[in-house]
Amino acid sequence: MSLLKRIERQKQEAVLRESDDMQELRVRRPAIPPSRDAYMDLKTRIQNKLIADLDPTMDVTKTDEVRRTIEEMFNNILTEEQNVLSRAERKRLFQQIVAEILGLGPLEPFMADPTISEVMVNGAKNIYVERQGKIERTNATFESDEHLMRIIERIVAPLGRRIDESSPYVDARLQDGSRVNAIIPPISLVGPTLTIRKFFRIPLTVEKLVEFGTVTPEAMEFLKACVMARLNIVVSGGTGTGKTTFLNVLSGYIPGDERIVTIENAAELQLRQEHVVTLESRPPNIEGRGEVSIRDLVVNSLRMRPDRIVVGECRGAEAFDMLQAMNTGHEGSMTTVHANNTRDALARMENMILMAGMELPHRAIREQITGAMDLVIQLERLRDGSRRVITITEIQGMEGDTIIRSDIFKFEQTGLEDGRIIGMLRSTGLRPKFMEKIEAADIHLPPSIFGIGQRSRF
């Protein structure tokens, strides 16, 4: 949406809002403290003047320049208003108005806070954030459900998406890459609901994952060898366990001379290699046409001569095409699935293949899975909010109709200290059967990584 259209729309909204606010104040004035009433009235007046006076041709992508222009106009208007505000009040008022005109309103401070990974809005008056794996309620609020709806529409409109009663939920992406989901009444009974998974410009490194206790150096050395030897890997875990982050770290081990095709619903992977083609699915338009699914992109990627295919998440029928690719010369491919443990991950893959409409017996489907998948990495968010690798499991093959799997590394909890879980990912003492493939790639791991020669703890 152009700045001209946005300003025109905000002008219309400001007139309607001012009329509604005055009517509401006449009815509710006794319940509102005079100080807050005066502050909100001042904020509304200054905001409306700014919107009216802003140059519609201004390039909103030049954020610093636009912000300086708004600040200069803000100071002039405040001088005309002849209001005496403290430095702190003046700064807070300016930040709030800029957030309303250019940003996400009361959510702006949370988007700027690097310790916050997720923002959750349950109606106008309930805003929660996730910080270091723990969810906490904030004191911030929107003025009303209409105020929240204006912010949601501001997010989705530039993307050509819509959200209304006929299409009451939408997935979108902010300019910085943050993933957004919004759902509104009548589907949501608590008012408009907004969830933002923040995108971090600086991706987590192996060193940070080790520092956080997510994984051990020995396990990462093993996984590095698996990636370089072109094993097919699935990262499994529940919502918010860090699957995409871990997949991104693993992708960093792919050699720089290989052609990588990434496929996602919302682009989150941040691969540093030079030869990367990033594909993103597309929902249908207002007329219900133009959809490009993950499955469409997986099928198309096979015609793009990829060395590796990295699918951000398998959710449905695309799992069949992904396994076919893994089984037909695209070794070293990776994806994630939603599952609570390795066994559930395999069952989910089986169900997703059935969703593709393949009328195959269960044994044939399981043979497809075991022929394609080499390794499943299971992530979990523990009770203390920490995200850990719980198991690293080899898929060994079939025995009858059963998929045989073997844990190579497993998390062992040793205690609880000040509410924090103490434990470590340890080797089970088993050497994976695919070591021949790793060694064939001229990668030689020390036996100590697998606890060989040491007493197993399992």
What does this structure look like?
There is one protein chain. With 458 residues, this protein is α/β, with parallel strands linked by helices. The chain is 38% helix and 22% strand. Strands 9-8-10-11-7-12-13-14-15 form a nine-stranded mixed β-sheet, sandwiched between helices. A six-stranded antiparallel β-sheet has the order 3-2-1-6-5-4. The longest helix has 26 residues. About 3% of the residues have low confidence.
Write the layout of secondary structure elements.
Blueprint: H1 3-28, H2 34-53, H3 63-81, H4 87-102, H5 108-112, E1 116-122, E2 127-131, E3 134-137, H6 145-156, E4 169-173, E5 179-183, E6 193-197, H7 206-212, H8 217-228, E7 233-237, H9 243-251, E8 260-264, E9 276-280, H10 294-301, E10 308-311, H11 318-327, E11 334-338, H12 342-355, H13 362-372, E12 375-381, E13 387-399, E14 402-417, E15 420-427, H14 435-440
Parallel strand pairs: 7-11, 7-12, 8-9, 8-10, 10-11
Antiparallel strand pairs: 1-2, 1-6, 2-3, 4-5, 5-6, 12-13, 13-14, 14-15
Helix pairs in contact: 1-2, 2-3, 2-4, 10-11, 11-13, 12-13
- Average pLDDT over all residues: 84
How much β-strand is present in the residues? 15-25%
Main beta-sheet annotation:
9 strands, mixed
Going by helix content, strand content and strand pairing, the class is: alpha/beta
The low-pLDDT segments are 21-34
What is the chain-wise order of helices and strands?
A: HHHHHEEEHEEEHHEHEEHEHEHHEEEEH
* Count of runs of 4 or more consecutive helical residues: 14
Total count of strands: 15
Can you list the strand order of the major beta sheet? 9-8-10-11-7-12-13-14-15
Distance between termini? Answer: 59 Å
Query: Cα-atom Rg, whole angstroms?
Result: 26 Å
How would the global form be characterised? Answer: elongated
Helix content: 25-40%
